[in-house]
Amino acid sequence: MKFTRTFFLLSILSLLMFGCGGDADEPTPVIDVTGKWQLDFIYTNREKVGEEPLQASINPLYGKYLTLNADGSCSLTELGLSDASFDFLTSSSFSGSYSLDGDILEIQVDNAGNTQYEIFKVKAVNAEELKLDQDKSLILTGLEKNKVWLSDEAYNDSFQFIDQYQEYDVEVEFLKE
Fold first, then answer.
1. Considering the entire predicted model, what is its pTM?
2. Looking at domain 35-176, which of 1.10.357.20, 1.20.1250.20, 3.20.20.300, 2.40.128.280 is its CATH number?
3. pLDDT at 167
4. DSSP the chain
């Protein structure tokens, strides 16, 4: 009986010493995306089953900016949102807000009285650059949020265009102004 009690106490002590001293979960680092960012390039990769991928790299003219402020407001200068990613062909500017949940960045802007959404994954951010990614799932989630104000025809056309691809990925890179 004494042996059993001693063994039991030593077992508990061992568990306390070795089982509970592990690494504590480290908090997820907060990503700081604030700043004025100039659009550097947009890279798109679209793939259909059994076909060669369609890839495009676009380096727009200078003067296209995304500004993300510390208070959650944002502005797009000569830059808009499209069905997938940013519309670099516009000469219009938009304002709105953004939210960051972990590494998911959601941008909302006012577009002629309608709230337009786009959702990105923050791939990298540092003092010099901001890299955003979108996969097909994020693109379709943003499109679904925009369904409220899109006509049925515009929504269906955009959905069918995006959905025809097995993979649809967009990479966007901004440089700090």
1. 0.81
2. 2.40.128.280
3. 95
4. -HHHHHHHHHHHHHIIIIIS-SPPPPPPPPP---EEEEEEEEEEEEE-TTSPPEEEEE-PPS--EEEE-TTSEEEEES-EE-SSSEE-S----EEEEEEEETTEEEEEEEETTEEEEEEEEEEEE-SSEEEEEE-HHHHHHHHHHHTTTS-HHHHHHHHHHHHT-SEEEEEEEEEE-
